[in-house]
Each structure stands twice: as C-alpha cells, then as structure tokens.
Design a protein that fits this description.
17% of the residues lie in helices and 32% in strands. The chain is an alpha+beta fold. A hairpin with a 5-residue loop joins β2 and β3.
Length: 333
C-alpha cells in the first residue's frame, strides 16, 4: 500500500540526492525515534516504525534479539553551519535589495534584512531545504558490525515484524539533524520561491546565507518542522543500510515481493542507483509458505551512506564544496 504523501517523500529524496549527506527526508522525523543505531522500517505511508535500538540492550531483549557482538564505536558529534540546500537543477539568484523586493518579505524578519535570494527551475522539479544552525552530525563507524548482527537476527526480525518482508528494514548509521527546518518542493517547471536572510555572508559552495530567514509561508508551499525553543532535533538527512528479503528460493526462484517502490522501502527490481546489493544470508521460509522441498529467503543489503566524512576528511569536504556549481548563483537588479 502506498499514498500520495509517501510518493512525495520518495520524490524529494530523489531530487536531493546531489548532496553527499545520505538520503533527504521530506518529513524529518524526531531524532529521539530516528537516531544512529536504530533498526526499523518505513511503512506504506512513509511513516517510520522503530523495531529496536541496537546500542540499547533492554530494547534488544524486549524483542528477543541478540546484541551486536562487536563493540559499537560512535564518532564525535559535530556541529555544522549550513546554508540552504537545493535540488540539482535549482537556479539561485541573489536579489539586489536596492532594486526593491516583496514588501511582505522585507517586513517579515524581526531583524534587518541583509540578503534575499530567489530559487527556481525552468523545466525540472525543484526543492529547497532551510536549516537553523547548528546542524548536528552523528554517526557510527564500521557498517560490518551491523551486517553481522542482521545475519544473526534476520529470522527473528521476520517472525516478530512480518511487515519487513514487504517493506524491508533499515539500520540507521548516520544523521544530520536540526532544531528547526523548512522544506519546499515543487513539481512544475518555471516555479520559484524567494527567501530573505538576516545574514549576508555566503560560504563557499552554498546557495545562500546561514541563519535566520523568512519567506511568504504556506502560500508558497513551505512546510516547517521543529522550533528553536524546543529540545528535539529533526533529521533532514540520514545514511544507513537497507536490508530486504529480495528472493524466494523454493521450487523456483522468484522475487520475494511485488513492490515497485524506490529507495526508502521494499525492493526496486530495475534500480538504476548503481548500488550493488550484498548478499548477507539466507533464512528458512515460514512453514505456511513452503510446499514440498524446504524454501528460503535471500537477505541482501544496499548501502546508502554519506559520502563526506566531515570529521576525518576535511580536505575531501573542501574539494566537494569547491566543485559545487557556485557559478549558478546570479544577481538580479
């Protein structure tokens, strides 16, 4: 089962795949339920369903799951200051304040307006993500520990949560989270949005300043999550391992699910992602699904990980930022 809301989630993830931070989330979940080390799945409506927290023995015991045998090592938390993040084909234009801007935009900020930008596409779909600093980056090292855990627990996971046979399941390995974010996605070429900023400075490779912003609100299609006064963080990008019961091996070999969904859930039979699934293990099929000879499910894994390690490879991050198409930022006025 799917929904139009879930289709938007998948479209947004696809639009924002030009960024190296993992998978973008159109409806950012609270980090209290979606943090590194959690195992769970996205259902047919795109809602996250937690199964167990792999670094919490009580959580694993309650599900009858074994612990991770190797010691899990977590990287130091990093606080990052971002400007707006845009989809690949979004054009960014700086609006000259001297030329005049929308009065609603000029008066909306509680502080002086220092810069304004227009984001638009000519023919393609587009998306913009705004995040309040800091964006908190957390992650675990060593994906192999999690794969070994799945090999040991895949059978129990299917027994305890039969839904994963259709939806697959994830182990989250990294997150980028913020207290406040706003997202705008459009599916019509020629559309655009304008955003005013309190700050003026723009970092290398960024599509606008970081910090306080204002726009015309829901009239322009913005959706907001969180608030600066709260304690909860909301995850805007994540990296992880997607596991799926991909093939049924019995009297014949056939796909284990008829799902045609994309990155976040189930099996994508003709994926063009370039990610080669890794076979993790096979598990016996339930008796009610077996006719004659024993049957098995093949469990495989696809890695959807962040591409830049900010803590360990600053040079690579700088190279990526400098390679970003900074020339697409034009000036109006």
């Amino acid at each position: 089962m799917s929904s139009s809301r879930w289709q938007l989630d998948q479209q947004y993830a696809d639009l924002m795949k030009n960024h190296p931070f993992g998978i973008a989330l159109y409806r950012p979940p609270p980090q209290s339920a979606f943090k590194p080390g959690v195992c769970g799945y996205f259902d047919g409506f795109g809602e996250w369903n937690s199964i167990a927290q792999l670094d919490d023995p009580d959580s694993l015991n309650s599900m009858g799951l074994s612990p991770v045998r190797e010691e899990l090592q977590k990287a130091s938390r990093e606080n990052i200051k971002w400007g707006p993040k845009t989809a690949e084909f979004v054009k960014v234009k700086k609006i000259s304040l001297s030329a005049g801007i929308d009065s609603a935009l000029a008066t909306a900020l509680p502080v002086n307006l220092s810069a304004a930008y227009a984001y638009s596409t000519e023919t393609a779909n587009g998306a913009v993500l705004l995040t309040a600093p800091p964006v908190v980056h957390e992650r675990y090292y060593f994906e192999s520990h999690f794969k070994k855990w799945v090999k040991e627990n895949a059978k129990i996971l299917m027994q305890k949560r039969p839904e994963v046979k259709d939806y697959g399941f994830w182990i989250v390995t990294s997150t980028f989270a913020t207290k406040l974010c706003e997202i705008n996605m459009w599916k019509t070429g020629g559309k655009g949005v304008k955003v005013g900023f309190a700050a003026k400075a723009v970092g290398i490779g960024e599509a606008g300043p970081s910090g306080e912003w204002k726009h015309n609100g829901k009239e322009d299609g913005w959706n907001g999550f969180g608030n600066l006064e709260g304690d909860e963080q909301f995850v805007v990008f994540f990296g992880g391992l997607k596991f799926q019961f991909s093939w049924f091996i019995g009297e014949s070999l056939k796909p284990a699910t008829g799902s045609s969904s994309r990155i976040l859930r189930g099996v994508e039979p003709e994926s063009d992602s370039g990610i080669e699934p890794e076979v993790i293990t096979t598990i016996p099929a339930p008796e009610e699904e077996t006719v004659g000879d024993p049957a098995f499910y093949l469990v495989d894994c696809e890695e959807y990980l962040e591409k830049v390690d900010f803590g360990q490879n600053i040079q690579a991050a700088d190279e990526w930022m400098n390679a970003y198409d900074n020339s697409k930022i034009d000036t109006l006025g």
